[in-house]
Amino acid sequence: MVIHDVIVIGAGLAGMRAAVEAAREGLNVAVVSKVHPVRSHSVAAQGGINAALKETDSWEDHMFDTVKGSDYLADEDAVEVLCREAPADIMELERMGAVFSRDDAGKIAQRPFGGAGYPRTCYLADRTGHGLIHVMYEQLAKKNVYLYDEWHVVEIVVEDKSVRGVIALELLTGKLHRLHSKAVVIATGGYGRLFNTTTNALSSTGDGMALALRAGAPLMDMEFVQFHPTTLKRTGILMTEGARGEGGYLINKDGERFMKRYAPKTLELASRDVISRAEQREIEEGRGVDGCVLLDLRHLGEEKINERLPQIRELSINFAGKDPVREPVPVKPGAHYSMGGIWTDVDGKTPVSGLFAAGECACLSVHGANRLGGNSLLETIVFGRRAGSAAAGFSFENKLRVFPEDALKDTARGIALILNRAEGESASGILKEARDAVEGHCWVFRTEAGLKQGLLEIRKLKERYEGVCVTDRGDGFNTELVTALEAGYILELSEVMLLSALNRTESRGSHFRTDFPERNDREWLKHTLIYKKDGGYDIRYRDVVMTKFKPEERKY
Amino acid sequence: MKTKFKIRRSDPLKAEPYWQAYSVEVKEGMTVLDALLKISEGDDPTLSFRRSCRSAICGSCALTINGFPKLACSTQILPIAKETREVTVEPLSNHQVIKDLVVDFTPFWNKMEKVTPFLLPADETRKEWVIKKEDEKAIDRAQKCIMCGSCNAVCNSLDVDPNFIGPAASAKAWRFVGDVREGHRKKRLERLSGEHGVWDCVRCVHCTEYCPKDAAPLEAIERLRAKAIEEGVVENPGAKHVLSLVDSIKRVGRLDEAAMTFKTLGFLRSLGMIPFGLKMEIHGKLPHPIIFLAIEGMKEVKKIYSAVEKRRKKG
Ligand SMILES: Cc1cc2nc3c(=O)[nH]c(=O)nc-3n(C[C@H](O)[C@H](O)[C@H](O)COP(=O)(O)OP(=O)(O)OC[C@H]3O[C@@H](n4cnc5c(N)ncnc54)[C@H](O)[C@@H]3O)c2cc1C
Ligand code: SF4
Ligand code: SF4
Ligand code: FES
Prior knowledge:
heterodimer, A: about 550 residues, Flavocytochrome C3, Chain A, domain 1, Methane Monooxygenase Hydroxylase, Chain G, domain 1, seven-stranded mixed beta sheet, 16 helices, about 35% helix, B: about 325 residues, Ubiquitin-like (UB roll), Fumarate Reductase Iron-sulfur Protein, Chain B, domain 2, two-stranded antiparallel sheet, 7 strands, about 10% strand, binds flavin-adenine dinucleotide, binds FE2/S2 (inorganic) cluster
């Protein structure tokens, strides 16, 4: 059996940052990732990363914007850490080799971003995530972190409420391996793939959250998913906010700029949740075009589009077959960011001893009911570092505890069951129905009846999943088996999300209940916590941590 | 529109790769990756291929599509299908196949590791760097690389010598050598100028032509070569060859092969010549090695040289 001090699951920005930090302390650190690090979803982030760098800006202002943006569901102690430590982390990224776009004086340039009162978003053109993920991968090589690339973690092994390591499937050979460690950091990203229409990578299936839940850690605020208003019709590929920032219109089938009815002042520049809801209403009330509304850039002219929005044009042509210079591009809301996740403290610690989490899979919460653009990349760096450091600290203080004898056997049996089942349903079939159910009932608008219906459907699908079978019986690169495993995580998380959404009888940030359209601070300034218990779920609540700001109406 | 997909498949348990045909209903806007997903979610779940971002930024899905390397996720089907009736999909060439469309990337990553793929800052304690836009521009193109492997798949030198560092790792190397913060430029250049290094590129331009992200690896190679000469890293056959070429033309207006060989193989160049080799390399102006006897245009040759020299002095 292989032994490491710290094992990090996931090689996105959060996972690699954690690994680099733990390795810095001289420990034996490994990263296990189902896709090669540079293929991780973080690579797709476009807009940038926030930090109050300028003298005329301050971390307190950054904190205020974040708390307000969160619709007052963020924990202020965590937000304070995020904003206070941001500037030093950005400077450290630069020392590692990150390239940021520069201003005329040669300093790191910053651009304005939605919901922020100051231009504090650092960026590298429109490929910030790409730039950062390659830098972090470079650091991984520099620090000699051991990399298990294309290894899929199928189990986090816990005994007596303390973590012992993980079990992972090596994609190349189909073999299961035990990786024994003192500490485990989960950094597996978000759960955008619970939905059909999402901006997330195909690999954002929420694995780590489902595994953590099974291992005894609670998930927090899973009902909160940010919907981005401009994603491409069939693929959900993101058209950045810049398209509207540069003056793009949103029109319905009658050519009407419908935002004037929903947000007469800010129009297309209203906040993401407001626009998403407006679009959805247009579509549902029959003023959409084939399930979409239209993003119209034609009036900007070819020159401006080429100069300011080259990526938008390229994406529209390549992925939707539409040239925005000549025709409007069909767009609709798409699931974009998972606010919910594994509950941790500001050091990434979960209630399970030795188990840590960071990045989009974690929930501290710094984003509350709605994340601000540019804050999630920051979260991966700040809390990735902190989790890595805490996991290292834990490894120094604790001895390696035994890896339970039967763990591997049990996991192997579960997988063999799927592989050897002679007949049954395909995972992709089940997944399709699950996503339809989730998208149908836990979308931009939610109601009690819909959520209950969704739960019913997901529970039925969970039963059917017990009979899932694969046609590919080969060992090497069995992607069908991986899909089947992911379907299991997706079903589990869908149920948890629906349950959390059903119980939250108010509307806050991204969570909108048509039957409870108001924010209810008296009863709902609290986080949803879900534990797994005896095959079912135990729902608890925890008060929001408030230190500085009083909740006020969120108006922009 | 029903479209025929011919996919090159390999099963580790079967000896020979084989072609399998699928018919896919293609709608407007569909990409090759969409078609592969459709096949694997319906007709044939055993088909293996890599994918992640499906937006041309993660580098997972480079495949040989109708004979050329392309990202499956950014390749629209209808335009090709209209032209060729069918779409063939094969794994990347120059790479060992693991299963179906999945190839072994280990050699690719190993090459990356060979170029010490991280910044070694000149000043570790510096709090903040002031970097001019134009300095950043020098490495911007190379930095766009998504490590998809398309360039290595079509590289002629790599085809002949699997140990050649290759275009992708060269682009990565330039990203550091060209970075104003880098502190070990010369050492890097020395290693890159060694055996299987950047001088082994035959400049077929394939890498730049097929790169889906406009990272232009050949440009990086040319910049590396130029920088090597500039930094005096000339004790290697590649640089010597270039320098003696420059010298030969200056002297006799043509390649004096005998002398060149001698020089390439072991004659320390006076540093004075270095800028010429450098400039010509940068502008891709080194003539092909064709032997002419005539040197009537010597005057013109001299003029060219002094013009280049002038431009160099101007910077
Ligand atoms: C299109 C788009 C644009 C965005 N733009 C911005 C932006 O401009 N600014 C901003 O702040 N945020 C942005 N975001 C959000 C931000 O990119 C993400 O929140 C962030 O990158 C998440 O990083 P992560 O490290 O937590 O996870 P990820 O990058 O998702 O990485 C997850 C890792 O876990 C691994 N993994 C998952 N499951 C398993 C398993 N079972 N076994 C082994 N490994 C596993 C994966 O292989 C991967 O390496 C954007 C998001 C999208 C979708
Ligand atoms: S130009 Fe050089 S590196 Fe590029 S493909 Fe040709 S031989 Fe390879
Ligand atoms: S240089 Fe271009 S073709 Fe080569 S790996 Fe990078 S992105 Fe792909
Ligand atoms: S799937 Fe990421 S580049 Fe094609």
